[in-house]
Amino acid sequence: MKLAARSILGPLAAIASLALLSASLPHPAWAAEAAIPVEKPQPALIKLLPPGAASKPFVLAVALGSPPDDFRDAQGHIAGWEVDIVRAATQALGLKLELRPTTFDTLIPGLQAKRFDAATGQMGVTVVREKVLDMIGTLYGNELFAALADSKIKVNSLADLCGLSVATTRGSREMVFAAQEQPKCKAAGKKPINMLAFDNGNGAAEALMSRRADLYWVGSTAISYFVAQSKGRTKVVGSYTDPSFIGVALPKGSPMTKPMQAAIQHLIDDGTYGAIVRKWGLQADATKTAELNPTQAKE
What we know:
Blueprint: H1 9-24, H2 43-46, E1 58-63, E2 71-72, E3 78-79, H3 81-92, E4 97-102, H4 107-112, E5 118-120, H5 127-130, E6 133-148, E7 165-169, H6 173-187, E8 194-198, H7 201-209, E9 215-219, H8 220-229, E10 234-251, H9 257-270, H10 272-279, H11 294-297
Parallel strand pairs: 1-4, 1-5, 7-8, 7-9
Antiparallel strand pairs: 2-3, 6-9, 6-10
């Protein structure tokens, strides 16, 4: 249906379509597989814990978004591949895990204030973030653009975003990249990028499905899953950035950094990590090592 031809039925159809899509998102086909086995506490890992760590919960801030990253499932439980990894890692460390749902833009301030022990939220590992956080790479990913199936838009570079409405999440790298591109749009005599920032990926996806946004721009795991679940209603129309690590973030210099890194490496070595990424259909982006601050390490 063309935008120009929409009547009052158009928005209603878009909302109905969105409702059906949203209802399907928490039910990935991969989740039908056997649950990930409970990891047994590992004495060698427990010895790495700082004094007092075993007597309190390990608090993980989770930026809720959309599957398969960090989201609420049909029962209201916090789920996703990142939560599965940290849960298994804390089990191996003999720790109780406490999940604290939040929004993406609170993660770094919360870690710096030490309100959380760690954070996940499809957080890309960057040199800038590694200066203020410790980051453990857990998966490779890049950024993708999704559009409605009838869209003619192709994104070959950020210059193609000038004059478009683009939905993403608040506090994300996408917002930074777009802000850096705005002067270039102006210099080229083009309209600015209209960035629509939402608290989570679901809000950004809704903006696309209801045609308030021309594009939905977030990480590749969320976009690939979103497009697959839309059953032909959306498509990938471009990418930005080369594949790089997504990771678990901890306060810079945290005494829990080394134990968490060692626990995630243990999951890779014993096959639990492989079972988790296969559960969520992410095995093609798996890592073989749990690298600490991998971007700085490669400089």
